[in-house]
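Tip: read the tokens left to right.
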């Protein structure tokens, strides 16, 4: 790829700004000073430095965020803060986007990447990638509900859901539950509970496919996935 494209992608400014930077003679490929913006570089085998500092090139970025409530899962919005607004500039320059949506009031595991292919596969209804949610419910969740979810429940628009695995963590006048679903219909968890006459008061996603929320992340914090985690996601999305 061209050196100006690489440096621009890595946050060194627009192509025009990078051209100016190259003129200063501070950019090297291996030991050679590069001033021509059209110079080609192979970042896999060559080392690019700016002012002696190596530039680590990568095409894709994979982030796990503990999404806070009140922030929307989108790249841009006219009214609300988005999950992308929470990113540091060095991550935002990769133009990542959220993989699917969590409601504004939902918390928890949100993947953010610029890898369109992986995102597409994880969201494909054909892949049945399981998503696990933890929720507080405004009523006693019963074994009948567990059974109903196992059969699939009819949502307000007549759609009958695929089987959901409901686990009662704490039953009572308000209950704590975990639910695994393999679909991603709009407001699905909330609408599944509405189908059995109950209401979700608090919702947090704790798992997506093989990836569990890193509980050391405070709300609004995020970290890069490890290579192993990215590989697990790739396997999930290609096999399931
Ligand atoms: N189901 C919902 O109802 N809301 C979410 O944010 C995710 C799943």
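Filled-in amino acids:
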């Amino acid at each position: 790829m061209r050196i100006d494209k690489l440096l621009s992608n890595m946050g060194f400014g627009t192509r025009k700004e990078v051209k100016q930077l190259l003129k200063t003679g501070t950019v090297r490929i291996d030991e050679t000073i590069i001033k021509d913006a059209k110079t080609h570089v192979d970042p896999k085998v060559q080392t690019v430095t700016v002012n002696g500092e190596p530039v680590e090139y990568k095409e894709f970025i994979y982030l796990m965020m503990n999404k806070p409530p009140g922030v929307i899962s989108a790249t841009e919005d006219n009214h609300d803060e988005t999950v992308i607004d929470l990113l540091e500039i060095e991550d935002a320059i990769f133009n990542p986007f959220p993989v699917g949506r969590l409601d504004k009031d939902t918390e928890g595991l949100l993947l953010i990447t610029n890898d369109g292919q992986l995102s597409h596969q994880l969201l494909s209804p054909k892949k049945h990638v399981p998503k696990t949610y933890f929720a507080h419910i405004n009523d006693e969740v019963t074994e009948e509900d567990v059974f109903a979810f196992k059969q699939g429940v009819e949502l307000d628009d007549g759609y009958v859901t695929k089987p959901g695995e409901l686990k009662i963590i704490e039953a009572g006048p308000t209950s704590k539950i975990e639910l695994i679903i393999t679909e991603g219909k709009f407001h699905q968890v909330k609408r599944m509970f509405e189908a059995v006459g109950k209401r979700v008061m608090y919702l947090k996603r704790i798992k997506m496919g093989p990836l569990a929320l890193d509980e050391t992340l405070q709300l609004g914090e995020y970290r890069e996935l490890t290579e192993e985690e990215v590989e697990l996601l790739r396997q999930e999305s290609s096999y399931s």
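Helices lie at 3-9, 15-23, 89-92, 116-123, 143-151, 188-195, 227-239. The longest strand covers residues 200-208.
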